[in-house]
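User: Round two. Same drill as before: sequence, then structure, for each protein.

Assistant: Same drill it is. First protein:
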Amino acid sequence: MTAPFKPLALAVGLALASGFAPSTASAASTPHATTAHKSFDVSELDPTIPPCQDFNGFVNAKWVAANPIPPDRTRWGAFDQLAEASLNTQHQIVEEAARHAATAPAGSIEQKIGYLYAAGMDEAAIERASYQPIKPQLAQIDALKSPADIAEFIMQRFNEGDGYVFNFGSSADFKNAKMQIGYAFQDGLGLPTRDYYLDPKHKEELEAYRAHIARTLALIGTREADAKRQADAIVAFETELAKASLAPVELRQPENQYHFVSLDEANRITPHFDWKRFFATQGVNIDKGFSLSQPKFFAAFDQQLARAPLATWQAYLRFHTVDSASPLLSKPFQDNHFEFYGKTLAGQPEQKPRWKRVLSTVNGTMGEALGQLYVKTAFKPEAKQRAQTLVDNVRNALKARIQNLDWMSDETKAKALAKWETFLPKIGYPDKWRDWSGLTIKPGDYFDDVQAATKFDYHYDIAKIGKPTDRLEWGMTPQTVNAYYSPTENTINFPAAILQPPFFDAAGDDAINYGGIGAVIGHEATHGFDDQGSQFDGDGNNTNWWTPADRAKFEARAAKLVEQFNEYTPIKSRPDLHVNGKLTLGENIADLGGLNVAYDALQAALKSNPQEAGAHIDGYSQDQRFFLNWARVWRANIREKQLILSLNTDPHAPAPLRAIAAPSNMDAFAHAFQCKPGDPMVRTGDKQVKIW
């Protein structure tokens, strides 16, 4: 589901991890680099670009020019290289599981993953089935006769793990984070955001979507004229939902993600959709209530139940049934789906090979089970303890920065430090793995297997409602090249796959490690004090722990960061397209705070190791190498359509800007590279942003 409060991740759209064994050196004092080991290859630097003018260009321009985007991707960078390598390792794991599935222990995760992957790779069987797997569902839609039938259909499909119109799942109660409650969340749109329906600048994408709907309906035998007429009705229907939907910037606000209601109150908002019956159908017992997170949206949904013609509802449900199932159906459906969502919206020239797409489905349905096999292959258990050392060092640096803030009162500092004390770092993989014994995967039935796994995951999730929050549970798989912070759990989480170069190098110097994984740790910890995380206390409750004066100072500083990013125009040919400083504010605060905290932690490490502190490696000081590795992490090529899509939807700024934005606010960067006031990489006076 779309989480009611999404974990705050380092990066998005980066699904899988590197297959290389992660580094295992102690982060507190890593060995000096030698001539035989290049933890940072300075030959990749471009000496024709002054670092004080364009630091991203200085570090990454040569690499970007030499590394075009593969045709089955929309971007290519440091994260993506690790993801690609991971795919190869995971490919070996699932291929091995498939080869031995029949003889594996009955009901083991090896057998289930093997059967699921093998079924997905049986293209002949999938082609023979065409769209037969969804015909029963399409027949149910054809048989609908009333708004009550529509509501009942939606409820029953949710119970199968197949949601329509809105999302539903569990999460911590914003007002009592120790307990899990249900969250109903806006959804139902086939385009990325409400603006794609309402803003004329997206007219081209809207018309392409209309054509995609008609083509999709034609694949199940709808006559061309009827398909076009239904497409018009579906676009009009979704436009009404879009009018009542909140924009991505609005959804960042906690007050727009949580609206607790009793069942009776919910039914008054949606008199044609009975929430008591919905929960009974899901097998969930609701006590005092749940979060109907966007009441305006659900009121609009109810109005559509009452007013929209039955034929429009049937067309809408029919299209989304086919569209969502298309990646699991025969080639015409797969190609049609990719043509719009891959090519038209994101500019991706080619589909990923079949094995990558099937592996993505395995990750999406049995990701933690695959992660259990992954860590046996690609992660040494002792790495958890060694990474813990670096986490502790960076967390201590954050504590010191909070204590020494000159703009925050002692009263608010005490609350901030209390929150800091309750941070729970989680490293590598879960201490306890999920139990998959209740999931049955049959050999040779891809669609039904995916549906079974999807239903199993859905009921695993909603079974948490009414139970205590488990802070030890993970929201990312171990094989994910990413990291995240959860505000309602107050946890910082570092999957196994990110604990490797260029983030963490066992044979590298301290500067490389603190400029990489150290800054990642600082980034996630700072999320606890960004514009969103700062609205939650150490227990994960959405409550104000600030004095009014301190909150005003914080928001004034954050507003300067909004202004900084609003000025960025990442597409040279489109100077009208700016980064959305409000949408990306949380990530930008985390980058700025995280890099400062990691720099402080590096200085503490070097203080205890004077020989390394004074050493130059390949002609660069430790401070310089710290910033060089930070920029290297964000090297990336991205297709223009994908970049435009990201500017509209992604709470992360484009990667090349992240390489320069935080350093440009740091005196330490200017000193390290002997930059002068007036250089593009030096922000001074009112333009310089300092928060944490």
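Second protein:
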Amino acid sequence: MKNLWGLLVLALFLAACGGGGQEPATDDSQAAADSSMTMEADDDFEWQTEQFADLKIIRYQIPGWDKLSLDQKKLVYYLTQAGLSGRDIMYDQNYRHNLEIRKALENIYNNYAGDKTSDDWKNFEIYLKRVWFSNGIHHHYANTKHTPEFSQEYFSALASETNTTLSEEAMTAMFDASMDAKKVEQDPNKGLVESSAVNFYAPDVTTEEAKAYFASITDPNDRAPISIGLNSRLVKNEAGEVVEDVYKVGGLYGPALEKVVYWLGMAESVAENDKQAAALRNLIEYYETGDLRKWDIYNINWVQDTEGDIDYINGFVEVYNDPLGYTGSYETVVQIKDFAASDRMSVLMNNAQYFETNSPIMDEHKKEEVVGITYNVVNVAGEAGDASPSTPIGVNLPNANWIRVKHGSKSVSLGNIVNAYDKASGSGMLDEFAHDAEEIERAKAHSELAGKLHTAMHEVIGHASGKLEEGVGTPNQTLLEHSSTIEEGRADLVALYYLLDPKMVELGLMESLEVGMAEYDGYIRNGMLTQLRRLELGADIEEAHMRNRAWVSNWVYEKGLADSVIVKVVRDGKHFYDIQDYDKLRVLFGDLLKEVQRIKSKGDYEAAKELVEGYGVKVDQDVHTEVLERTEKLGIAPYGGFINPVLQPVTDADGNITDVEVVYPDDFVQQMLFYSREYGHL
């Protein structure tokens, strides 16, 4: 037991915290050639390079790069090039004017020769950096539009001096707060499609028209349904009929996808094995044709490719940005497996059936046999699109439920990303918001392991658990705008329920249940208090993960009031939450998991709406004000994103690649400008 424990701690030090992709669950975690780049990192590696607005910029390392063979280095290089080649797609998907605005801002930045010491110029720089960070003019997390802290007159003067042009509509989008104010609207009373700025629907397509179109192409009897709408924009033809403008070579985003396909072809030429090569071939055919059956075939190939050292995520993947939950955002992550850490975590995969069988959900919602679960700790080598600069730290794919059931899924923890987050963080939030010294000491002793186990359980067991009832549609069809937050909350609840299960100690996953108690402390503290620092005063909670942490925490708090399971403490005008009965809290997590699985399995929209809107949207304004005041004094940015390493090929006299070197940029601005120059294909 002790020996396994020591190995596991080492494994989890490289692991990640947890869907499609998950960000850190709590706030407690401890360009080509350029003069700003440094070579292989050393002990003095600078993890955080700058902080502006509500953002901090972090760097990450790629451990073990030199242990890869030349073909493996080429494979990683080609895959990162493929990912970056589609970078512009994410900007256009987020908002129809994003690319025009970004290019105008960059032209001004590159060519303005006037006063760069004024407050107006500094605010202009911050606005541009925020656009880069969010892949557009709307906040990457809050969905609200960035407000320029400079006047339209000042911008017009900059544009005039640099011969920069911007259409009238794009100019209005920048400076009129009421125009396309929210990227993703989740209030159905306001019109999910009509009030969302995201560019998955043409401006003249209504919510009802979009729903009717998707319903018309849905086969309720198909047991292997394609992911309808995943790779297209809904528009109206000349006859006024709703049709799909498909993302493919020769179609929408064709110029960028041609480049993506080229680099994927190069990757196929150095694939590690036949399964990996087959997956890449089918991914290429999918991009060339737009055929969603090809996407399914690719995902089946990809799930079955478990033998190589190199893996990747590439496609229109997560549907969080679609108010109706159909269209996927462009995303790529290139990753190198950490086999030593992954082998030590195989205990989760090997015991997946135990967790399913002993889940508190109804028997009819349990899988009779859990198949094909793969979990690995990986080190990221490059990211693009929806995964960059703000990245997930854990991923479970594919999203198609029938593929999960029949062929399995892959879960990964992004080990070097979590490590970088930890290196760049401090303990200020814990000291400020923990209820007492005992809670602080427990967190310091166990929160790192607790958070990483939560992620592993969330991704490996949570998303792979449960099943739909016969004849029930997919969650995006039944639960609509609430499908994403219900799924994320369901996976969280699986993790929370088992983190206080003695079986976790028996399996050697933790030394004692104090680890689970530390995660309970951190989860409730974040769901009830600290995540509110990410919202502007007066705002509702919009983002799916934030909503799920809120409705989980508020529900168990309310249901446990009679037994004082969680007690609200007000001390010196500050709110704290003290868990007084961890065992009863675990029972409440189990009760809620049972209900949430029922909601998903039956497609109970009204129950989902009642849960999410009743517990996960509205914010106590007095508590919110207090949290903002407490966190402002700490000077810690609530959001973090990353500068990617750059992979530089070394060639011989004939142009053949003889090596690929890693360089670590430390200038966010220069990397963004480099990306726009080299990968601006739209």
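The chain is about 45% helix and 15% strand.

User: Perfect.
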